[in-house]
């Protein structure tokens, strides 16, 4: 037992993967006796894999460059728009407030009235009333937007009612803010000149500054320094209370402190933190968290109240200042309509044209009446509203695509300085020349200018420098907008506190309404928790754990993204498997880099995830080659096992041998477990269709119940933690031939993080293959994704997330009526079509009916092999077409309830789906009528003749479909399709001629031009996929085949429930082969008898007949009279005798074998006798075991042990198969065995196909008559909807791509300007990816340095061959490679860069030093932690003695020598459930390492 424990420790994952002293070429995968044979000197020539640039590996350099250029443009355009919009919004606000003062005097331009004269204007009250209303409208617009958004969220989505006391807090704060804003806009700003007014708007951060200071946590770094700066900023803001009242020396301006204080209360919520040391602030922080859920319900009322309060406050201020309010209403129509302005001529004042003092104004009496420009007021209002909206919307866009620093924070802080500069310039120009803006602004309107002296020596005035303090203090208080921590494409609720912006103070609103606490959920420290937690994920008994109720709190590590890749395989070929495995290995490499970067470099990676692959192999077993009673894995499983090394070699560009898989017998068949180079697991579940239900849907049920039921719901942790884990657990559904990049998965994860109600997300599927059928599908898939899927995404939900590449949220699948309902067996005719033929679509329908959203990401590309042959394509669509119709009908029938429960599905969306459904049903009839019309146009025949020509082949095809076998139907379909393609060419020519006659204005011409135009524009908007439009010609020629023949074929063959693609012949037993042979001979004999020659030879009677009277002539002729059947006794007796002799022969053989076993060859390897106890050779002879085929031989092994009875959970025959490699054999825990048995019994027991009960479905066909233009408008409407929705979706996709694109250009901080640590943080994952590469580690890789045509002579062919002959294939993990390379990096060396890193990532000496310091600190930290662990609980003294039933804790399973990692091997990945816990190492025998379960010992 002790030695076993020691061996277990030696072979544990901890040692072989993370011991940095282990070279990759050693046998570090314990227990494996598999080594590579030495290469003979003459056999050293190589055939390395060619690096193909197809599918997901296609060269994307052009696209990447385009996207980077686009991102630079986005940076600049967004910056310019936000800055200009902010400046215009601020300028128009001050322009409007400048017109409010009753006695304001403006110098009027004398250009039209006399150059030598001087004029002034005093605005009439009607004009001022118009500007007052404008300011009210400018305040109302964003508030009404807030009301609209809140109502939409409350009624179409969901929002909770707040606690009344919480509502009152918000009510009080917003009331104070609104009153303060009214005082500022209507009382203070009109009395100040525009420059002072603009400066004052930098002083509305007092309360946020105070709350920010009080909310600082004790744990913050550099807290003392931050508090000092906070106090300075608050003091600077407080000076704003007194500066203008003192300088202006006006009593009425002492209202400024009150107004500013009240305005600043509006942003209280963003500056409160529940981590504050002050109890009151902490309590407010908790209230703030609760307000998140009731935000929209609260603001539905608060926004209306703010509009009303603002209006009442304005009336109150007017009453105070003017003494009455009646004119405010009576002069409304006059102010916005035609009214007159009185221009007063005054005596010219010597010394310039600047505004004179009121005492110097002497009217001449020659007044001029001019007509006011009544549209100016509306123009300024609209400019203000749109400028504020653009600043907000483009600012939000900048935050979403991660360009916030440069394109949001920078322009927001620049708004006031730029505004002040432009105001000073404008006022200076107007002061010098009153006619300067004569052609742009009416001369009677202008800003309230500061005195000329103020403008001339602005910089020398002390209050100009005081304003600089206000600006800097505002920048400090809104410092959070420079360092955003939110995810890509974050929701508005995650970006801003209140639903909308404050239109009158747009820059302050953008700064202080942008959330401060949008921190990343997971920190590097949380990763240490995972390994401690993961010990709980696999267990023997629940009693081994602490009580679940003891752990109530949710841990940060529960928020970490967990991805389970779930692939379904069946009969994939080698090329398809290699593409799939390469995709998995790329994900494994990416995950490893992220894990190592976080683990050793302490870098927080927002895209970090854990990953594990599960392959569910349908029908994985076949009858053994040696015995009909045994099963072995089929050739496809063997192909997978044989292919993985080739895929790994291709991905890592070096010779690779992956560790042989561990083998586990299971109740459903078997399991193979690989540990990939990045140390993620790949687990193949081999399904035996005699033990478990086969087909794709049942594989999906299997992995849902296993991963979400068994491995999540049975965890002994609190329900709160399970809920958080479920929300962050995703199932990545894959097909066995899929090809994708890790970035495609991360884009889908982005969508999931953005929206918690998202149940599933799918990517853009590209068909791969060659031939006309694949070309057709390229165009079909392109149009389907560009138009249909994009439309569904924009106006509602995607209806089908294909199982070949989609991401499903664990929580959504676990909901009521989803997973459980998905296990429903097909009982009715409709079920076979809806449930079994289109399982992906049905699963999405179930999610939609539970209220979840399904989305489509056009930026997430995946490549799948499409059917290349006509028959395979038709059979695939035979499944898809009816299942699509059935599922959409199910959704439409249940639409009322779905609309109620699902926020994203509305009546217009259901209407759109009804349109599409109508198009599908009317499709065949429409195409038929099109053909009839086209024949008339092309061949100049009458309608009825054309009708007959078209109806006859259709009737013929229907007759064939109803009466003949499938292969004959498909031959007829091919012939008709070819014929129709030729006819379509003539039809196209005929249609073109018809259009020439009818002209471009005809409905048909308009529709055709619109359709082709929309396709072309769609292709231009998808430049990467532009060439998909070229096969549109094939699509056009195939229309009759695909929309007429295929629909008929699908509907008539509804009774066929076979898969139709990748079908292969099933291996048969010897009995079945003999039976078939007998039946063939019998059929041949009967056919011979039925033939004329046979009839003549046998005389028309069978051999079994005899007659009472027989007459024969030399055997040539025989005449029998009164014939009757011959008695069969004689024949039957002979058959019985033959059977008895055969049985006797078998028994004799068996007795001889038992008595003299060494003389006979066994057909199989035997398990070690010692593992099953003693066996006596001369025991009772069991005849049952002798029922085996005695004439089979196996030259592989000669057994001296009698045959053991096989147990499928202990020693199944397949486990000894050499084709599944010589990996260790392990066993499931008793709990997991029980889980599988229960699951099989309840949901997955095999269903026997009853041929009598096969479903037969008949359909009545619609009789269609020509409806002319209705069809054109019907399809045109669909086209318009899809085209508009596609434009919106394109914008969303471009935003997503831009958000995911990293720039290393001049528009971001230059690398030289960044600190070494900052550069390390930014590029940590890329640095690790370079350092962990296996290629080039031991100089044995594919050196293709002479690949260019000019370098052929320089190829090191002989050197490469010699190296290849000397080296063994590598067996390695990526983190060992990382540590080996890191050890070689020398920060003090002469070479600042290193050949390990690519040119892009060549590091400066300082950065390398930072890297070294970072890793050394992690080492020291782990060493310290390790020593504490050894002191606290040392189970590794005394020869590693372990008690039998003891669970290994993660903390105690650390080898003492493993100081570098301190045993925390893989934070990303569950503890190896198959290593130390449920298995014991046993002596290997026959090159198979057996382990047996503790529970079975």
Structure description:
By secondary structure, the protein is an alpha+beta fold. The chain has 47 helices and 21 strands. The strands form five sheets. The protein has a ten-stranded mixed β-sheet with strand order 9-10-11-6-5-12-15-14-16-13, with helices on both faces. It has a four-stranded antiparallel β-sheet with strand order 1-2-3-4, with no helix packed on it. A three-stranded mixed β-sheet has the order 19-21-20. Helix 33 packs across helix 35 (966-998). The radius of gyration is 41 Å and the shape is globular. The model is unreliable at 1-37, 534-551, 1158-1202, 1249-1268, 1305-1313, 1387-1395 and 1432-1497 (pLDDT under 50).
List the helices and strands and how they pair.
Blueprint: H1 2-10, H2 13-18, H3 61-98, E1 105-108, E2 118-122, H4 125-156, H5 164-188, H6 194-200, H7 206-214, H8 223-239, H9 243-248, H10 256-264, H11 279-322, H12 326-330, H13 332-336, E3 340-346, E4 368-371, H14 375-400, H15 404-432, H16 452-456, H17 462-477, H18 492-495, H19 506-513, H20 524-534, E5 561-569, H21 574-601, E6 609-617, E7 621-623, E8 631-633, H22 635-652, E9 662-666, E10 669-675, E11 681-687, H23 696-713, H24 719-727, E12 729-735, E13 739-740, H25 742-754, E14 758-768, H26 772-795, E15 805-809, H27 810-813, H28 819-822, H29 829-836, H30 839-849, E16 853-865, H31 870-893, H32 895-901, H33 907-939, H34 943-963, H35 966-998, H36 1003-1021, H37 1032-1037, H38 1039-1052, H39 1070-1090, H40 1092-1098, E17 1105-1113, E18 1117-1125, H41 1129-1155, E19 1224-1225, H42 1230-1244, H43 1269-1300, H44 1316-1331, H45 1357-1366, H46 1374-1384, H47 1405-1432, E20 1480-1481, E21 1489-1492
Parallel strand pairs: 5-6, 5-12, 6-11, 14-16, 19-21
Antiparallel strand pairs: 1-2, 2-3, 3-4, 7-8, 9-10, 10-11, 12-15, 13-16, 14-15, 17-18, 20-21
Helix pairs in contact: 3-14, 3-15, 4-11, 4-14, 5-10, 5-11, 6-15, 7-8, 8-17, 15-19, 21-22, 21-44, 23-42, 26-43, 29-31, 30-31, 31-33, 31-38, 33-34, 33-35, 33-38, 33-43, 34-35, 34-38, 35-38, 36-43, 39-40, 44-46, 44-47
């Amino acid at each position: 037992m002790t030695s076993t424990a020691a061996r277990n420790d030696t072979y544990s994952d901890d040692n072989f993967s993370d011991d940095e002293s282990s070279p990759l070429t050693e046998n570090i995968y314990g227990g494996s006796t598999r080594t590579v044979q030495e290469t003979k000197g003459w056999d050293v020539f190589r055939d390395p894999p060619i690096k193909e640039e197809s599918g997901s590996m296609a060269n994307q350099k052009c696209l990447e460059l385009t996207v980077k250029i686009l991102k630079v443009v986005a940076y600049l355009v967004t910056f310019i728009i936000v800055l200009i919009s902010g400046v215009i919004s601020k300028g128009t606000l001050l322009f409007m407030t400048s017109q409010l003062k009753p006695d304001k005097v403006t110098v009027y331009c004398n250009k039209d009235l006399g150059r030598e004269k001087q004029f002034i204007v005093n605005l009439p009250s009607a004009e001022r009333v118009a500007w007052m209303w404008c300011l009210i409208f400018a305040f109302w617009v964003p508030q009404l937007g807030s009301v609209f958004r809140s109502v939409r969220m409350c009624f179409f989505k969901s929002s909770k009612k707040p606690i009344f006391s919480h509502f009152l807090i918000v009510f009080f704060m917003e009331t104070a803010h609104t009153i303060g804003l009214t005082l500022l806009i209507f009382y203070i700003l009109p009395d100040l000149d525009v420059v002072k007014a603009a400066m004052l708007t930098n002083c509305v951060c007092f309360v946020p500054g105070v709350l920010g200071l009080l909310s600082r946590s004790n744990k913050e770094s550099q807290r003392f320094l931050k508090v000092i700066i906070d106090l300075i900023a608050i003091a600077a803001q407080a000076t704003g209370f007194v500066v203008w009242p003192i300088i202006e020396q006006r009593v009425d301006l002492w209202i400024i402190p009150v107004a500013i204080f009240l305005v600043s209360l509006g942003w209280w919520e963003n500056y409160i933190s529940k981590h504050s040391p002050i109890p009151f602030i902490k309590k407010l922080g908790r209230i703030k968290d609760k307000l998140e859920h009731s935000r929209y319900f609260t603001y539905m009322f608060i926004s209306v109240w703010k509009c009303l309060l603002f209006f009442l406050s304005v009336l109150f201020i007017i009453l105070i200042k003017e003494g009455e309010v009646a004119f405010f209403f009576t002069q409304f129509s006059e102010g916005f309509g035609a009214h007159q302005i009185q221009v007063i001529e005054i005596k010219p004042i010597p010394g310039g044209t600047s505004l004179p003092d009121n005492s110097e104004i002497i009217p001449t009496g020659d007044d001029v009446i001019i007509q006011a420009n009544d549209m100016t007021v509306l123009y300024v209002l609209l400019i203000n509203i749109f400028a504020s909206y653009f600043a907000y919307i483009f600012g939000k866009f900048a935050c979403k695509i991660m360009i916030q620093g440069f394109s949001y924070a920078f322009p927001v802080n620049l708004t006031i300085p730029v505004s002040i500069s432009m105001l000073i310039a404008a006022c200076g120009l107007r002061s010098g020349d009153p006619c300067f803006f004569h052609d742009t602004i009416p001369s009677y309107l202008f800003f309230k200018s500061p005195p000329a002296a103020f403008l001339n020596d602005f910089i020398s005035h002390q209050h100009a420098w005081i304003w600089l303090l206000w600006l800097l203090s505002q920048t400090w208080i809104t410092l959070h907008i420079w360092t955003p921590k939110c995810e890509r494409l974050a929701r508005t609720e995650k970006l801003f506190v209140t639903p909308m912006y404050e239109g009158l103070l747009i820059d302050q609103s953008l700064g202080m309404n942008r959330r401060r606490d949008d921190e990343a959920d997971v920190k590097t420290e949380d990763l240490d928790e995972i390994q401690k937690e993961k010990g709980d994920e696999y267990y023997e008994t629940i009693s081994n754990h602490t009580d679940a109720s003891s752990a109530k709190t949710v841990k940060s590590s529960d928020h970490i993204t967990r991805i389970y890749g779930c692939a379904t395989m069946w009969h994939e070929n080698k090329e398809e498997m290699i593409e799939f495995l390469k995709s998995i290995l790329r994900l494994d490499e990416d995950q490893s880099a992220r894990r190592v970067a976080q683990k050793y470099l302490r870098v927080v990676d927002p895209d970090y995830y854990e990953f594990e692959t599960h392959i569910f192999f349908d029908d994985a077993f076949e009858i053994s080659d040696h015995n009909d009673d045994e099963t072995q894995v089929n050739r496809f499983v063997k192909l997978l096992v044989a292919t993985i090394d080739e895929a790994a070699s291709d991905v890592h560009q070096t010779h690779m041998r992956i560790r042989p898989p561990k083998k586990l017998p299971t109740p459903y068949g078997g399991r193979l477990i690989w540990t990939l180079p990045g140390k993620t697991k790949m687990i193949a579940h081999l399904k035996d269709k005699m033990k478990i239900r086969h087909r794709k849907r049942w594989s999906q049920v299997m992995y849902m119940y296993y991963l979400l039921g068994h491995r999540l719901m049975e965890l002994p942790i609190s329900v709160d933690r399970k809920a958080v884990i479920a929300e962050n657990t995703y199932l990545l559904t894959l097909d066995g031939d899929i090809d994708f990049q890790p970035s495609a998965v991360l884009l889908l994860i982005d969508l999931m993080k953005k929206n918690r109600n998202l149940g599933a997300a799918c990517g853009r599927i590209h068909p791969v293959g060659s031939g006309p059928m694949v070309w057709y599908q390229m165009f079909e898939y392109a149009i389907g994704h560009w138009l249909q899927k994009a439309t569904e995404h924009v106006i509602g939900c995607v209806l089908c997330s294909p199982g070949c590449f989609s991401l499903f949220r664990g929580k959504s699948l676990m909901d009521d009526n989803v997973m459980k309902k998905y296990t429903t067996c097909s009982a009715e005719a409709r079920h076979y079509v809806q449930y079994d033929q289109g399982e992906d679509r049905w699963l999405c329908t179930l999610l939609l009916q539970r209220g979840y959203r399904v989305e489509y990401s056009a930026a997430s590309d995946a490549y799948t092999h499409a059917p290349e042959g006509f028959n395979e394509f038709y059979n695939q669509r035979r499944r898809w077409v009816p299942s699509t119709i059935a599922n959409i009908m199910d959704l439409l029938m249940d639409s009322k309830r779905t609309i109620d429960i699902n926020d994203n599905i509305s009546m217009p969306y259901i209407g759109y789906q009804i349109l599409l459904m109508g198009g599908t049903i009317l499709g065949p009839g429409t195409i038929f009528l099109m053909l009839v019309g086209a024949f008339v146009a092309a061949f100049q025949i009458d309608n009825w003749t054309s009708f007959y020509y078209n109806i006859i082949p259709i009737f013929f095809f229907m007759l064939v479909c109803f009466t003949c076998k499938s292969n004959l139907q498909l031959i007829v379909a091919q012939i008709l399709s070819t014929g129709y393609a030729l006819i379509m060419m003539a039809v196209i020519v005929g249609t073109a001629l018809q259009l020439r006659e009818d002209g471009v204005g005809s409905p048909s011409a308009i529709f055709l031009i619109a359709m082709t135009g929309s396709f072309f524009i769609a292709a231009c908007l998808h430049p990467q996929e532009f060439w998909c439009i070229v096969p549109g010609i094939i699509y056009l020629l195939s229309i009759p085949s695909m929309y007429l023949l295929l629909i008929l074929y699908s509907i008539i063959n509804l009774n066929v429930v076979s898969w139709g693609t990748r079908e292969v012949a099933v291996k048969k037993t010897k009995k079945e082969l003999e039976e078939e042979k007998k039946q063939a001979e019998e059929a041949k004999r009967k056919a011979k008898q039925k033939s004329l020659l046979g009839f003549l030879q046998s005389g028309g009677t069978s051999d079994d007949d005899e007659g009472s009277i027989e007459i024969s002539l030399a055997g040539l002729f025989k005449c029998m009279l009164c014939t009757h059947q011959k008695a069969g006794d004689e024949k039957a007796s002979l058959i019985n005798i033959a059977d008895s002799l055969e049985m006797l022969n078998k028994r004799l053989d068996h007795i001889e074998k038992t008595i003299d076993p060494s003389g006979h060859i066994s057909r199989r390897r035997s398990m070690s006798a010692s593992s099953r106890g003693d066996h006596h050779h001369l025991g009772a002879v069991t005849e049952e075991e002798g029922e085996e085929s005695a004439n089979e031989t196996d030259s592989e092994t000669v057994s001296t042990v009698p045959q053991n009875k096989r147990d499928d959970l202990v020693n199944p025959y397949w486990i000894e198969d050499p084709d599944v490699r010589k990996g260790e054999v392990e066993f499931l825990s008793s709990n997991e065995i029980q889980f599988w048995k229960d699951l099989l019994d309840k949901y997955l027991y095999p269903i026997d196909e009853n041929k009598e009960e096969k479903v037969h479905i008949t359909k009545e066909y619609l009789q269609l008559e020509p409806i002319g233009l209705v069809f054109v408008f019907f399809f045109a409407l669909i086209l318009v909807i899809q085209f508009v929705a596609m434009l919106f979706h394109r914008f969303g996709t471009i935003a997503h791509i831009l958000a995911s694109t990293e720039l290393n250009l001049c528009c971001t901080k230059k690398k030289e300007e960044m600190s070494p640590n900052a550069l390390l943080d930014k590029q940590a994952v890329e640095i690790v990816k370079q350092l962990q590469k296996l290629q080039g580690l031991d100089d044995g890789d594919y050196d293709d340095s002479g690949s260019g045509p000019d370098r052929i002579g320089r190829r090191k062919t002989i050197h490469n061959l010699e190296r290849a002959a000397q080296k063994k294939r590598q067996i390695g993990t990526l983190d060992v490679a990382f540590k080996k390379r890191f050890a070689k990096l020398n920060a003090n060396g002469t070479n600042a860069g290193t050949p390990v890193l690519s040119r892009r990532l060549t590091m400066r000496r300082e950065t390398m030093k930072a890297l070294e310091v970072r890793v050394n600190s992690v080492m020291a930290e782990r060493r310290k932690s390790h020593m504490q662990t050894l002191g606290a609980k040392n189970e590794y003294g005394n020869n590693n003695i372990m008690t039998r039933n003891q669970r290994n804790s993660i903390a105690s399973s650390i080898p003492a020598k493993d100081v570098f990692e301190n045993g925390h091997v893989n934070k990303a990945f569950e503890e190896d459930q198959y290593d130390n816990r449920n298995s014991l190492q046993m002596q290997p025998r026959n090159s198979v390492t057996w382990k047996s379960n503790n529970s079975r010992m």
